[in-house]
Write a structure and sequence with these properties.
- It is a single chain.
- The chain is an all-alpha fold.
- It has one domain.
- It contains 5 helices and no strands.
- The radius of gyration is 21 Å and the shape is elongated.
- It starts with 6 loop residues before the first helix and ends with a helix.
């Protein structure tokens, strides 16, 4: 008996795995079946739909965090704090800036991964 896999389930497996082999293993299907699934338009569409959604969510998060961090840095620049508060705010600003850099790197990695997945999907 052949099991039917939801296109979104297949796409999520691919997007959440470091390698295609790992994705195939998560789905518990043969290499041939996995290759055949990846050729189907509904799988390609699901990959594009989910990866676009992930991109938009990450972009919104980065934009929100950036806005918050810029507000903190603006307050620092105006010097509206006592010495104790200034030290705390400076540490917080540094923390947020590190988080922005980290999220930026994650977003860059995600974009690269999405581009690679789109190449794979379009090559089929």
């Amino acid at each position: 008996m052949t099991k039917t896999l939801d296109p979104h389930q297949v796409a999520l497996s691919i997007l959440s795995s470091a390698t295609l082999e790992e994705a195939r293993s998560k789905l518990n299907i043969s290499r041939t079946k996995f290759w055949q699934l990846r050729q189907k338009p509904e799988i390609k569409n699901a990959l594009n739909e989910i990866s676009s959604h992930i991109y938009v969510e990450n972009l919104a998060t980065v934009m929100h965090d950036t806005s918050e961090n810029l507000s903190i840095l603006k307050n620092l620049a105006h010097g509206n704090f006592s010495d104790n508060q200034k030290a705390f705010v400076q540490l917080s600003a540094c923390k947020y800036l590190m988080e922005i850099a980290s999220k930026g790197y994650e977003l860059k990695t995600l974009r690269s991964r999405i581009a690679n997945l789109e190449k794979i999907a379009n090559a089929s």
